[in-house]
């Protein structure tokens, strides 16, 4: 995978401010490059998927401690590598956007060269660790990094308002990685979980882009929440949310889900649908604010957390409702 800045990216001045940086600040800078909050959210989906895959495969119990640690660490390294590449490529826009103006490449805590080397080191470590589990897991790790760095960051992000839809597939890869780590294959439940996150990403991210629309417009990044009217965005949020909730229920007939997953997912889905429709109703009255847009963003995180927590508990309570 070759990482470069295409002609569509603005010229970048490499004259970062020369600052004296101590070890602690340098370490914090490298950590910030990995986008820890994004990594944390991705890991929320990984371990529950491993628990469910273990039960689905008929092995029972929980995966081995080594397997859980290797998968979680490998996944975190892969996500961190993708985040660091993203910071390196997008450092020109990060200087413009208030939300990202404190990132280490902007402040000069980390130089572009250091960031690029760091990104590749994380990539090699991630792939080596995931490959040690099995080659399929390693290949899926490569695919996750490629989707985020090349497909999303380099190709789609600055070209289309649908960037987060297709580029967001990278955020769905941890469930495939987790499933492959346990079963050495990808089965229907893993595909359904992938699609849940795929359909969840727009209702999660578009309200955030509404909140930071000024930043995205200043940087000339066509996030839907920044370039479209609030009613258009709200309609899309509602449609994707309905599709996501419907997809989540496929785990019952096709994925072997039991009572815990079913009850929690239905309840969480109804609640999130109410939040999405509230945003839409506000948009019809031109009452959408940055505050109530962010309410949907935060609700989306709670929804995903509840769904995957129920997925982790489900194999240990009762049996599959169907099949």
Describe this protein's structure.
With 323 residues, this protein is mostly helical. The chain has 16 helices and no strands.
Would you kindly provide a brief summary of this structure?
With 323 residues, the protein is mostly helical. Helix content is 72%, strand content 0%.
Strand count, sense and closure of the main sheet?
Answer: none
Number of beta-strand segments: 0
Total DSSP helices:
16
Q: Mean of the pLDDT scores?
A: 91
* Share of residues in helices: over 70%
Strand content: under 5%
The ordered string of helix (H) and strand (E) elements is HHHHHHHHHHHHHHHH
The 3D shape can be described as: flat
Structural class: mainly alpha
- Gyration radius, in Å: 20 Å
Unreliable stretches (pLDDT < 50, length at least 5) are 1-13
Terminal CA distance = 42 Å
């Amino acid at each position: 995978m070759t990482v470069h800045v295409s002609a569509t990216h603005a010229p970048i001045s490499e004259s970062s401010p020369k600052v004296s940086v101590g070890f602690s600040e340098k370490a914090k800078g490298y950590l910030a490059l990995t986008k820890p909050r994004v990594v944390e959210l991705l890991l929320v989906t990984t371990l529950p998927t491993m628990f469910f895959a273990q039960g689905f495969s008929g092995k029972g119990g929980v995966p081995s401690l080594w397997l859980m640690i290797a998968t979680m660490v490998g996944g975190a390294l892969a996500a961190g590598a993708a985040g660091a590449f993203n910071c390196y490529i997008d450092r020109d826009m990060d200087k413009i956007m208030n939300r990202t103006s404190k990132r280490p490449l902007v402040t000069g805590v980390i130089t572009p060269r250091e960031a690029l080397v760091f990104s590749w080191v994380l990539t090699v470590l991630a792939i080596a660790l995931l490959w040690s589990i099995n080659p399929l897991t390693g290949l899926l790790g490569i695919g996750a990094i490629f989707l985020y760095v090349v497909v999303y960051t380099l190709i789609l992000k600055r070209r289309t308002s649908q960037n987060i839809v297709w580029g967001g597939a990278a955020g769905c890869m941890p469930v495939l990685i987790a499933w492959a780590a346990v079963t050495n294959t990808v089965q229907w439940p893993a595909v359904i979980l992938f699609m849940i996150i795929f359909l969840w990403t727009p209702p999660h991210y578009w309200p955030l882009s509404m909140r930071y629309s000024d930043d995205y417009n200043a940087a000339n990044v066509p996030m839907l929440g920044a370039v479209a009217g609030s009613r258009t965005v709200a309609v899309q949020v509602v449609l994707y949310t309905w599709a996501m909730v419907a997809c989540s229920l496929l785990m019952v007939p096709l994925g072997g889900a039991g009572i815990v997953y079913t009850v929690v997912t239905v309840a969480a889905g109804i609640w999130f649908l109410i939040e999405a429709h509230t945003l839409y109703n506000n948009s019809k009255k031109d009452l959408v604010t940055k505050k109530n847009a962010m309410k949907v963003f935060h609700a989306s995180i709670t929804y995903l957390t509840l769904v995957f927590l129920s997925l982790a508990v489900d194999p240990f309570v009762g049996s599959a409702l169907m099949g």
